[in-house]
């Protein structure tokens, strides 16, 4: 019997490298659940392009009819999608910037949300095509309470992940650090310790 090795995709969205709460907690999550899994990293501080007219036209052109320019326009999107397809678990660092997700994380999702590739439309509405995966969101904020009415980041992430088929989503909460101080990170570390591989 062949045992398939687990594969984790780590996505870092914090613009900070040093003293980043989400990066530190993401390290802890992977140390906890990783075991012998392989880990691929996508660091979104290496700026992603925004979707433009060329990309949109390429995306809506039948794959067999795409020009070389159109295939080139979708090449990065294809790579990002392949990274998700290869993973059984996504660990996403989610700093909350101004109540929402960082622009780079929104750009990443715009590039991976592709009709007929990561989701499809049916007579009953859209259906995600990346089922059977798990996501762990490591959410950190200065003042926004995770899960509150002013948190537009975590609910959005859970919705868009579900849209492409990833509905098993766990949230590690390190919110309100400006008010709670070290207590916020300590509580998040306790949540990490409870994670199952």
Which short descriptors sum up this protein?
alpha/beta; two-stranded antiparallel sheet; five-stranded parallel beta sheet; 197 residues
Describe this structure in words.
The structure is a single chain. By secondary structure, the chain is α/β, with parallel strands linked by helices. It has helices at residues 21-33, 53-59, 68-86, 103-112, 154-163, 177-180, 182-193; strands spanning 7-12, 38-43, 89-95, 119-122, 125-128, 134-140, 168-174. Strands 2-1-3-6-7 form a five-stranded parallel β-sheet, with helices on both faces. The chain has a two-stranded antiparallel ribbon with strand order 4-5. Strand 1, helix 1 and strand 2 form a beta-alpha-beta unit. The mean pLDDT is 95.
In short:
The chain is an alpha/beta fold and 197 residues long.
Coarse structural class: alpha/beta
As residue ranges, the low-confidence spans are: none
Instruction: Strand order, main sheet: write it out.
Output: 2-1-3-6-7
Helix content range:
25-40%
| % residues in beta strands | 15-25%
Distance between the termini: 21 Å
Secondary-structure element sequence?
EHEHHEHEEEHEHH
- What gross morphology would you assign? globular
| Strand segment count | 7
On the 0-100 scale, what is the average pLDDT?
95
How many DSSP H or I helices? 7
């Amino acid at each position: 019997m062949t045992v398939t090795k687990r594969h984790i995709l780590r996505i870092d969205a914090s613009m900070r490298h040093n003293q980043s709460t989400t990066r530190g907690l993401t390290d802890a999550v992977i140390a906890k659940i990783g075991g012998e899994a392989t880990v691929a990293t996508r660091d979104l501080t290496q700026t992603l392009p925004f979707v433009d007219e060329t990309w949109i036209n390429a995306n809506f052109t039948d794959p067999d009819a795409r020009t070389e320019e159109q295939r080139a326009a979708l090449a990065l999107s294809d790579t990002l999608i392949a990274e998700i397809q290869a993973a059984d678990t996504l660990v996403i660092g989610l700093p909350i910037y101004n109540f929402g997700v960082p622009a780079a994380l929104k750009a990443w999702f715009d590039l991976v949300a592709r009709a007929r590739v990561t989701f499809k439309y049916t007579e009953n509405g859209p259906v995600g095509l990346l089922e059977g995966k798990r996501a762990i969101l490591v959410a950190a904020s200065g003042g926004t309470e995770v899960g509150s009415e002013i948190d537009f980041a975590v609910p959005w992430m859970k919705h868009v992940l579900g849209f492409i088929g990833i509905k098993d989503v766990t949230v590690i909460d390190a919110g309100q650090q400006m008010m709670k101080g070290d207590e916020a990170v300590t509580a998040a570390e306790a949540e990490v310790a409870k994670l199952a591989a």
